[in-house]
Specification:
The complex is a heterodimer of chains A (459) and B (157).
Chain A (H helix, E strand, L loop, with lengths): L13 E3 L9 H5 L5 E4 L2 E4 L9 H5 L5 E3 L12 E6 L1 H5 L7 H10 L4 E2 L2 H18 L6 E2 L4 H10 L13 H11 L10 E7 L2 H8 L11 E4 H14 L11 H4 L5 H4 L6 H6 L4 E5 L1 H12 L8 E5 L15 H21 L29 H17 L13 H9 L9 H20 L3 H12 L4
Parallel strand pairs in A: 5-6, 5-8, 7-11, 8-9, 10-11
Antiparallel strand pairs in A: 1-4, 2-3
Chain B lengths: L7 E8 L2 E10 L9 H13 L3 H21 L3 E7 L3 E8 L7 H4 L9 H5 L7 H8 L2 E7 L3 E9 L2
Antiparallel strand pairs in B: 1-2, 2-3, 3-4, 4-6, 5-6
The chains are: A alpha/beta (459), B alpha+beta (157).
Chain lengths: 459, 157
Amino acid sequence: MLSGDGMEEYFHSVRLAADRCKGCVNCIKRCPTEAIRIRGGKARIMQSRCIDCGECIRRCANRAKTAITDNLSDLEQYKYNIALPAPTLYAQFSPDIEVRAIIKGLLALGFDEVYEVAKGAEYVSAAVREYIAQGKFEKPAISSACPAVVKLIQVKFPELIDHLIPLDAPVEVAANLARVSHAGQIPSEDIGVWFITPCPAKMTAVRQPLAGEASAVTGTISISEIYGRLLKLITSGANNVEIAEKPDSLGREEASSEGIGWAIAGGESAAVVPKSTMIVHEIHSVSDVLEQIALGKLKDVEYIEALACSGGCIGGPLTVENRFVAEHNMRKRLEHLQKQEELQPPSRIPSPIALKVTKGFEPRSGLKLDEDIVTAMKKLELMQETLRNLPGLDCGSCGSPSCQALAEDIVQGAAREADCVFKLRERVRDMAREMVDLAEKLPQSMEKNDAGREGGDGI
Amino acid sequence: MTMEYGGVWNGCLEMNSRQVIQLEFFLEAGDFSTAGEASSQIKRILQQIGVKAETARRIAIGAYEAEMNVIIHSLGGKMRVAILPDRTDISVEDNGPGIADVKLAMQEGYSTAPDHIRDMGFGAGMGLPNMARCSDEFSITSEVGVGTKIRMVIHHP
């Protein structure tokens, strides 16, 4: 149903529920990589350009855009299940509810163990601090924690790939650590490691890792999917009985404010403490800043924390709580934690495993018009000619996000000029004129008769 | 024949039986509001025709520095860009005032930019050296009272 451009080599978790799609243009106009077209009255996602940021999920008034995630029922396929809650999950609850209570809730939900992603974030913070201290990188270093931003760079700013910090994201580190602790005890294939996610990009990153290495995460379950049941378990206190036999995660030291803070914009920078930092969130703003870096600016900035969602992960499309409420919750929680940490500082044990440096991120050629440069140049010329004839209103009625995009689609054989409602009307008008014109031109034989009648000179 | 985002599209001609994309940008003195648009547009075109990211970036940075120089220092001018399958050729011409000592201007850190320009984060004296660094071929000629001409050629590997 979403064959898109047939580029099946990329997996995406953002999908279309075709029956709900009305073919409106809200999503195509907001997509940061112009990856959506309306064809046959339904939105279609171009696989090679989609970065799974979830902006379309947020914009769709008909809730026709969804994200494929796993369900709690998938836990049955594994003998031992570990939950990896994103710190954003904590922000969905009042700061009065302790992290410990949330962990207990997850255990009561059916998980055998919980490993906080915030723990992974602590280790990543330390590794990034070291990476920056070594100074062997192209400034500014760009955080690779947000998978949608990494993919935006792969698709739209491939020249900035070298700026990305070549480290695994906190969730991957957490998954590896969670698995390592069972090495030799439980066969790896019997362990299900589930990320409780605020966003679809993380889902895709698990299925198709950004740097091409297999993920240690089995699957992802959205926060919105489990929120209702989790809230009930937490507030009813009914979870205390069942979890007595699951001591693993409860004996472990809880994540500190440093790791938990990663849920909100500015949290990464607060943990990494670079000499100079820039924090940018919301995908279009991120794109604007990347454009500036591509022009050679911001060389004085050491570290760029770039997040696709407004406000950071707490603004993720698969969360439940309003982004500002979630931010408030998180700030209160952090304040409280930091006070506790003043009295009893967190242990700061170095990572028990070496932090895997990823192979590096590969560019994607989503914007290239053709593999052959001369053909691409010819197509570009044709595109400009086509664009000149279009009205330039960028209305989107043709199903492409702008006249420029329609011109490209026409050149690529994916649309026709008559898809433009204005061009179509022009043609209808011209045809109507021609019809009137033709209607007045009668065959010679009839014209004679007519003239005879009108003239009345009785030939 | 204006392109959607401000530049002039001079067409894609067959020259010596080779394909060329020609672009022309008019740069107004002191007009910071459009600064960077020409360079971003050039980069986009290079991406669309499949020029390697690293090369496209060098071209965009070179073009951006040239654009900024004309806007900051000159009385206005224009930038012509010819994109060929194997190289990009950028020539920038301004209408004065011209550079008295080109050798000095080419030194890193040398700048005649006034304070208000420096306050904006420009005028660090890296413009011309950066342009030279981004190019495979670089030339500059200048005449006081007439203007400055710069040519940058970057090969596509």
